[in-house]
Design brief:
The structure holds two protein chains of two kinds. By secondary structure, chain A is mostly helical. Helices cover 74% and strands 0% of the residues of chain A. In chain A, helix 4 packs antiparallel against helix 10. The radius of gyration of chain A is 23 Å and the shape is flat. The mean pLDDT of chain A is 85. Chain B is α/β, with parallel strands linked by helices. In chain B, helix 2 packs across helix 3 and helix 4 runs parallel beside helix 5. About 3% of the residues of chain B have low confidence. The chains are: A mainly alpha, B alpha/beta. Chains A and B meet through helix 8 and helix 9 of A and strand 2, helix 2, helix 3, helix 4 and helix 11 of B.
């Protein structure tokens, strides 16, 4: 899993340079806004604005599609399921609503994931959102170990085959084998995590005193504008929906 | 340099010096330890620790950020951090820019980066726990160079734990030998220590320089010495067991194949050493020959002599039991292969699966436990054994199903002298009983004391294939 910012975003684009915490906040707000309304128009307006904002903000839509196509497929799949099996009096409209809502909730999240470097996110959360450094950087170290775990999973499966163990067509043996492989993987992961924690502490990570930052992350006026923009977008979408008489909050 | 057999407490002492031992976990602690007159915990900003496994020491995704991690924790003013990082990277000869991704580095490069991370904290006491044990010879050489440079730059006192002494000796001026009951056995200049205690150290498993392996009588062959064993006949006339024809392997999405058009025949009674730098495709080739990975080009074929009725299909298509009875593979990490909760069960697993009678299984397991000096650990959990014990056990488990072909990935990596000798003995026995051994190895001593033939890989291609000239 390589999250490479520059394949998705124009490196000098406004969104690529925005503060990660601000981006995360804007994305959460937009997702919440889209989820709170039960009609088709509110998320549709939001979705249109978000796509527009991405283009203006320097995100390459084609790259997002290339990475985020499973999202499109699952949104369409949900829509199709609603159309075929739903008991709504207007199946077409309900299916469309479901599809648009899923897209409007998830698209900002996908873009945020694709355009934030994990290191920047950890730095920013610590500096701008007062997330404890111990938590943020330990998570970051753990994230770095994920690809190693995938590799190790394959190796353990091979190593067990070499011992003469496979499940063949027996589903119970499959489950047993899976459990055994998970156990071996976990033992290794815990051991590695202990060692990395030791190495981090040896470099002063457990010091109680203050910590400095080598990579400062600041909230600029443009970042405040990004969050304000997200709130404004939601307001506009709701206003449009109310004006057309379609607005239906989920709690109503 | 701190020496002693496995389990003498070398690593524990280093952790204590680093102030990282948790008193809450101690069963018993006695004596006192001071650094510049301080408790090690209060002297933490004066000590730097480098461990064996490079993967488990890097915290950040980019090289510069990783070096900056220590100074950040020690609250170095932000404007002073990056000059410190650049100086540390330059001192260890790190060949890339700051933004180089740490997961794209070789083991030797990662370990040099770990040195830079410690160096940036300007330690006065450097604690090194086998920093080159996991590296190929080239990587280990570069790390030793970096260490020498760091010592000269900082003038720091260095305490080094190392199995392979000869290479590290030029930077050592004092040797302390620990014994298993945690007493100091000897303390003095290297030359004096090795001349006075050489035999005893070698017996305890320490790789004493110039202490030839051939001085020792080989257990399984009481009448011959290891030196005589190395006079190996040419086995090119033995029965062919496994035939690789133009095999290649390309990882999905990779631009270059990991292995490309390698052809070789593994014969009964021979040991083939596969050598080459890290990343040259040795392990991939081994897993293909062991029937665990399907080649993407070419074929691996088992002969009738090895496989009987199974010879019609390639080994990677066999079911696991058929495979384990014919081709055994020992992985680099023994834990990956453990299946049970007791050492005894681990050894009984193969024979029981093959339908041997309980009494016969017990007899064979007892014989193996005795042979491997694991009898006192028969009821222990395999995961709790020491590194050397785990390694011996994993080689033995592969042998319990009596496969004619044994494939091993770095069987002697990081092992002390005693375990090394036992493993080489086991493999030599297997070879001389008419089995075939294929060992992927960086260890020149394994090549010269075991192999009839050497296959050198370079970036996936066969560089040369020659008999061991002796």
């Amino acid at each position: 899993m390589v999250l490479d910012v520059h394949t998705v975003a124009v490196p000098t684009g406004r969104l690529a340079r925005a503060n990660p915490t601000a981006k995360l906040a804007a994305c959460l707000l937009l997702g919440l806004g889209a989820a709170l309304s039960d009609d088709a128009l509110t998320p549709a307006v939001l979705l249109a604005f978000v796509v527009l904002a991405l283009a203006v903000g320097g995100i390459r839509i084609t790259h997002v599609l290339r990475r985020g196509w499973p999202l499109l497929v699952s949104a369409a799949g949900l829509g199709a399921t609603t159309l075929l099996f739903g008991d709504s009096p207007t199946p077409g409209l309900t299916a469309l609503t479901v599809t648009i809502r899923v897209l409007a909730v998830a698209l900002p999240g996908v873009v945020v994931l694709l355009t934030i470097d994990p290191t920047d996110l950890a730095d920013s959360l610590v500096q701008n959102a007062r997330v404890p450094a111990r938590f943020a950087y330990a998570s970051l170290a753990a994230l770095r170990l994920l690809p190693l775990l995938a590799l190790e999973w394959r190796t353990i499966k091979m190593a067990r085959r070499a011992r003469g163990v496979d499940a063949g067509r027996n589903p119970i043996r499959h489950a047993q084998l899976f459990a055994g492989t998970v156990f071996t993987l976990l033992v290794g992961a815990v051991r590695r995590a202990t060692r990395i924690a030791l190495a981090m502490d040896a470099r002063g990570f457990d010091a109680a005193g203050p910590r400095t930052v080598a990579r400062p992350q600041v909230i600029r006026p443009s970042d405040v504008a990004l969050i304000a923009g997200a709130v404004a977008l939601i307001a506009v979408a709701v206003a449009v929906s109310i004006a057309f008489g379609t607005f239906r909050p989920i709690w109503a | 340099m701190l020496l002693g057999a496995s389990g003498a407490g070398k690593s524990t002492l280093l952790l204590a010096l680093a102030g990282l031992l948790d008193p809450a976990n101690a069963g018993e602690a006695e004596g006192s330890l001071t650094i510049d007159g301080l408790h090690p915990r209060d002297a933490r900003d004066r000590t730097g620790l480098v461990l064996q496994d490079p993967e488990a020491q890097l915290v950040m995704a980019h090289a510069g950020d990783d070096v900056a991690f220590g100074p950040e924790n020690r609250a170095v003013p932000p404007e002073a951090i990056w000059p410190l990082v650049d100086a540390a990277l330059a001192a260890v000869g790190f060949p890339y820019e700051r933004d180089r991704r740490t997961d794209r580095l070789s083991g030797g490069e990662q370990q040099r980066l770990a040195f830079a991370g410690v160096l940036a904290l300007s330690p006065r006491l450097l604690l090194l726990d086998e920093p080159t044990a996991n590296l190929d010879p080239t990587g280990a050489g570069l790390v030793r160079q970096a260490l020498t440079a760091v010592q000269q730059a900082t003038g720091a006192t260095t305490i080094l734990v190392e199995h392979r002494i000869a290479e590290a000796l030029p930077m050592v001026d004092r040797v302390v030998v620990l014994e298993a009951n945690a007493d100091v056995l000897a303390d003095g200049p290297p030359a004096e220590i090795f001349s006075r205690h050489g035999d005893r150290l070698a017996e305890a498993g320490v790789w004493v320089p110039n202490h030839a392996l051939s001085n020792r009588r080989v257990e399984a062959h009481p009448s011959v010495t290891a030196a005589e064993l190395t006079q190996r006949p040419d086995r090119s006339s033995g029965d062919a067991l496994l035939i690789a024809a133009d095999v290649g392997f390309r990882h999905r999405g990779a631009p270059e194949p990991a292995v490309c058009q390698v052809s070789t025949t593994l014969r009964a009674g021979e040991a083939l050493a596969v050598v080459g730098p890290n990343g040259s495709g040795k392990s991939t080739l081994a897993t293909m020959l062991a029937g665990l990975v399907a080649p993407t080009t070419g074929t691996v074929k088992a002969t009738r002599k090895l496989a009987g009725g199974f010879a019609a299909t390639p080994p990677h298509r066999w079911h696991a039991a058929a495979l384990a009875d014919r081709i055994g593979m020992v992985f680099q990490d023994p834990e990956h292969q453990f299946l049970t909760e007791r050492v005894r069960d681990e050894l009984a697993f193969g024979p029981t699966r093959r339908g041997a009678a309980a009494s016969e299984v017990r007899r064979r397991v007892d014989a193996l436990l005795d042979r491997l000096h694991l009898i006192h650990l028969a009821d222990a959990n395999p995961f709790t054994l020491s590194g050397g014990e785990k390694r011996r056990l994993s080689v033995a488990t592969a042998l319990t199903t009596e496969p004619a072909v044994l494939v091993l990935d770095e069987p002697t990596f990081g092992q002390d002298r005693r375990t090394w000798l036992e493993i080489v003995d086991l493999l030599a026995n297997h070879r001389d009983a008419g089995g075939a051994v294929l060992a992927v190895t960086h260890d020149q001593a394994v090549v010269s004391s075991l192999a009839n033939r050497v296959l050198t890989l370079d970036r996936g291609h066969t560089a040369d294939s020659a008999g061991v000239a002796r």
